[in-house]
Write a structure and sequence with these properties.
The chain has about 350 residues and is an alpha+beta fold. The chain folds into two domains: about 100 residues; about 230 residues, Bira Bifunctional Protein, Domain 2 (BirA Bifunctional Protein, domain 2, 2-Layer Sandwich). Helix content is about 40%, strand content about 20%. It contains ten helices and nine strands. The chain has a seven-stranded mixed sheet with strand order 1-4-5-9-8-7-6, sandwiched between helices. Strands 2-3 form a two-stranded antiparallel ribbon. Helix 1 packs parallel to helix 3, helix 2 packs antiparallel against helix 3 and helix 4 crosses helix 9. The structure holds 3,4-dihydroxyphenylalanine. The site of 3,4-dihydroxyphenylalanine has 11 residues, from strand 8 and strand 9.
């Protein structure tokens, strides 16, 4: 290429071609690809111009270089402006398509809630936790010793009939009461002891108010000078918190082999306030739990000196509390996972 005129014409053709081509390009990606092809140093129409330098006579080289640089700068500016314009348009389009109407009503997400049993258990744990009780996690598979013998219920004791037991072997069974945890706690810890132990228990029993698997929460306090008054005080506070202020307790004599004396604890009817209604069967009182002063023999068998220490214990049926509190008349409703029932209970 000896003639600068020829070059000028060539460059002007390239300019025209680029100008025409850009009119056809609709996306920033397309513009980018095109720019690459034009500016490519080996094959691009502009990019490769410098390679021609060798063929240019020395006296024209400076002028040639200037012209090539000119078109390079022009193309770079042209592409930049063009790409920017397309990018802006594309962004605007995207914003339009993703536009959110913040005034639209929100999509409501269905909120799950805890199972009534879990709600009651958490409430019990909170209430007794605030009185300084620690949680002890007992075991569901127990030995005959921990579930019965150590609780002063030796073999052939009639009290064993009170709890129809699922035996796994002559030695092992599914615990029938969380009371079995008491023995482990007293064996493993020295007084003062102040624990609650919620968990599942099992009995071969099945009707509207009984289920083969249900939950209890055991309470145990062992220290110097603990009396039935301490039990009454704690339980009064407990029923006020769980059933509402103004609720009180009444202790009735009862029998459990591991407590002496033993009591059945009634709560004043929180529905009719003691006047007598269907819930309390007209008596104004509802039985809620069993309790008592820990039998000295149980303390001694666990290595605790019963002349120095005394204890109180109680066992609460969690389903029973849930049924009373939420007006559920069949325990099965608590095990059937029917959301029409469970959805109603969110305390
Ligand atoms: N374990 C008894 C039951 O399942 C309930 C019970 C009664 C627990 C008296 C106690 C207690 O800790 O002192 O029927």
């Amino acid at each position: 290429m000896a003639d600068l005129n020829e070059l000028t014409e060539k460059l002007s053709n390239i300019r025209q071609e680029i100008t025409e081509e850009l009119k056809k390009i609709e996306s920033s990606q397309g513009a980018f690809e095109y720019k690459k092809s034009i500016m490519d140093s080996k094959t691009g129409k502009i990019g490769s111009l410098m390679r021609e330098m060798g063929k240019i006579p020395n006296e024209l080289k400076a002028e040639y270089g200037k012209k090539v640089n000119e078109i390079k700068n022009w193309a770079a500016e042209e592409f930049e402006g063009f790409e920017k314009k397309l990018k802006e348009a594309e962004l605007k389009k995207r914003y339009e398509s993703e536009k959110i109407d913040v005034t639209m009503p929100a999509k409501m997400q269905k909120k799950g809630n805890l199972h009534p049993n879990t709600q009651v258990r958490n409430q019990l744990v909170d209430i007794f936790g605030s009185m300084g009780f620690n949680i002890y996690e007992g075991r569901e598979i127990e030995t005959d010793y921990y579930n019965f013998t150590a609780l002063n219920i030796p073999k052939d004791h009639p009290a064993r009939d009170m709890q129809d037991t699922f035996y796994l072997s002559p030695e092992f069974l599914l615990r029938t009461q969380t009371s079995s945890g008491q023995v482990h706690v007293m064996e493993e810890n020295k007084p003062p002891i102040k624990i609650i132990s919620p968990g599942k228990v099992f009995r071969s029993d099945d009707d509207a108010t009984h289920s083969p698997m249900f939950s209890q929460m055991e309470g145990l306090v062992v220290d110097k000078g603990i009396t039935l008054c301490d039990l009454k005080g704690m339980l009064d506070l407990f029923v006020q918190k769980i059933f509402g202020e103004g609720t009180s307790t009444r202790l009735r004599p009862s029998y459990f082999p591991f407590t002496e004396p033993s009591v059945e604890v009634d709560v004043s009817c929180f529905q009719c306030k003691g006047k007598g209604c269907k819930l309390c069967k007209g008596t104004g009182w509802i039985e809620v739990l069993g309790a008592g002063v820990v039998n000295k023999k149980v303390l001694e068998d666990c290595g605790i000196d019963s002349d120095v220490y005394s204890g109180i214990a109680f066992g609460i049926g969690i389903e029973r509390i849930a049924m009373l509190k939420y007006g559920i008349n069949n325990i099965k409703l608590l095990f059937e996972s029917d959301l029409r029932v469970l959805d109603q209970i969110d305390d």
